[in-house]
Amino acid sequence: MRLSGAEIVVETLIEQGIKTIFGYPGGTVIDIYDQLYRNSDRIEHILAAHEQGAAHAADGYARASGEVGVVLATSGPGATNLVTGIANAYLDSVPMLAITGNVPNSLIGRDSFQEIDITGITLPITKHNFFVHRVEDLADTLREAIRIAKSGRPGPVLVDIPKDVQGAKCEFISAKPVEKKGGVPADDADVAKAASMIAEAGRPFIYFGGGAVRAGAGELIAKLADKIDAYIGCSMMGLSEVPVSNKRFLGMQGMHGHYASSKAMAKSDLIIGVGVRFSDRATGNTSKFSAGARKIQIDIDSAELGKNVDINLGAACDICDFLTKLIDKVEAKQLPNWEAKIEKLKGQEAEQEFTDFLPADAVRAVSEIVTPDTEIATDVGQHQMWVAQYFGFEGKRTWISSGGLGTMGFGMGAAIGSSYGSGKRTVLFTGDGSFGMNLNELATAVTYNVPLTIVLFNNGVLGMVRQWQTLFYDKKYSNTTLNRKTDFVALAESFGAKGYRANDLESFKKAFADAYSQEGPTLIDLTIDKDLKVLPMMRPGGTFDKLIIGEEAEE
Amino acid sequence: MSKNSFVIAVYVENKYGVLTRVTSMFTRRGFNIDTLTVGETEDPNYSRITISLSNEKTDRAQLINQLKKLYNVKKVEVISPDMAIKRELMLIKVKNSPDTRAEIRDTASVFRAKIIDYSADAMCLEITGDTNKIDAFIDNMKPFGIIEMCRTGIVALERGPESMLSK
């Protein structure tokens, strides 16, 4: 079958099981869009308002579904608008395929209209990228790109296709969907060593991250913890993999982690890191980080082992295989003293006063109302941390949030994408700062009647930076007071979404119940105080011994 | 070169843009390259990049692991110092005068350097050897007046019957 390059793009995506793609048309992808038009019954294209939103949507789609998210954009500005979205996927190891058009081969290198070297630009933020010189290479390049994106440690791959390649014809032979390459099996000697380290430990703690989510290792982690009497914490990226109802799960670690979780890890004598990179936001001062604890690190990516903290045992392999073998090998143990310590920490956490304030109450209220399979997306800032701290995640893959890159403006696109990825309703928590960055995607949500409930915490300030200015910059609020006159309810209505206003818990609950029952997108503007803080807080580069838990730091 | 120096050999696919991918990783992860050479190998599908580094803070394991993650990288090896045959080539142009001519020739002969171009005012020499030998030769040429010089950087192989690709 002789097909044009544009036909090959669409046929290959369909052949590889891609059902939904996100994108925005332009001069160098008209041929591909023409084929999408002709094949609209076989593959769905969601038109975003901006390429960045489309990239975040592909990211959110991939996080919610576990499949590769696909985004399509034109050359030049279309391609550069993808950059933040690609970088975001790279830092959170999200499988993504970005397809860009480019000017014809004959115009490459001449600074032609809307020509940009997007493979050069995205070199350090993709797992790999391709420039397709010849139509004969196109189908296999796309297949290989998809395989790379989902194999091993997932990540974004970009394929740049010049316009003449889209028009040129060649023989197309369809192939099977590519298999992803998993990690290597666990080494028995490593498993045995881990088992003996566990046997010697009196205070074991399992610390997992995004790698555990990608591998779906939640049940195995819980099973291991039960067998060896360990407690569990996670990085922000790990949220929703182990349900909060699990009594051994103490919550998120790190700068704004749960008190008991952070303290328990600091007091443990063995940390079992599962799919987690011990990032600076999670560890604080790495040289002082849990100095008394031995560390095991299991990750599919060998380059993560010991990258940020020194470890005693590293295993680069399939996480689930390692945990399965370890659960089999390890002796069961009971550690009543450890349990008593944890109970004490939980008691201290329960006594703290800073957990009872409007946004936290609102998050808890949403947590009680929504079904466990509802996707919970966020933007970046204080609201994100409050959701991470107070939402009761029970369903796997329901936490859609920007971790590594910390991208304000991620939320709208990601929420739309996650709803497509899960086929379920999404609740997006955002702040007035983050929402302002990509609120244009409200148009997309309305056009496609996306089941999306937006909860906007409106404090009129850039709260997270303000919090740092309060604590570390002598309350000099440089450029974090927004002084905007935006009426978010009117704004939502103008886009065609239903808007609600709330200013206390009761009015919020009422608004949310109504909003959540609507079919399409809705927005609730909840006014909150501008001086609320995310607590506890570990000072940047600090240690878990001295957390800021109220107005003062712990002694 | 300091005693902390080490040499890495990287087999990469012989394709457009691969060198950029490798060097970009060094920049992004903060690894500092001393010398880098690249050329064809016994297998035309692959090029061999030889990189020497000397920063004592360089985390070798991290560097190797990051290199291995690059899609076009086929094989990475630290050339073990005991087993390494390392060579560098240098072209050097020095001032020529009747007073110094004989001495330059004598020095070249001691270092087994070849005179490859000659004029009344300058001569150009070619020398091959390990880095120390070349450094020493440069020191010896300095008094005559170095006009220009150019070094290739290190290429290295391991002793023994094996090839890196076959290992």
List keywords for this structure.
heterodimer, A: 555 residues, alpha/beta, Rossmann fold, 3 domains, six-stranded parallel beta sheet, 23 helices, 22 strands, globular, B: 167 residues, alpha+beta, Alpha-Beta Plaits, five-stranded antiparallel beta sheet, four-stranded antiparallel beta sheet, 4 helices, 9 strands, 26% helix, elongated
Number of domains of chain A: 3
Q: Assign the CATH architecture of the largest domain in chain A.
A: 3-Layer(aba) Sandwich
Largest interface: A-B, 14 and 15 residues
Helix percent of chain A reads 25-40%
- For this structure, what is the CATH class of the largest domain in chain A? Alpha Beta
Distance between the termini of chain B: 29 Å
Order of helices and strands of chain B: EHEEHEEHEEHEE
Structural class of chain A: alpha/beta
Strand order of the largest sheet of chain A: 3-2-4-5-7-6
Q: Which whole number gives the mean pLDDT of chain B? A: 92
Shape of chain B: elongated
Specify the structural class of chain B: alpha+beta
CATH architecture grouping of the largest domain in chain B: 2-Layer Sandwich
Contiguous runs where pLDDT drops below 50 for at least 5 residues of chain B: none
Average pLDDT of chain A: 95
Cα end-to-end separation of chain A? 74 Å
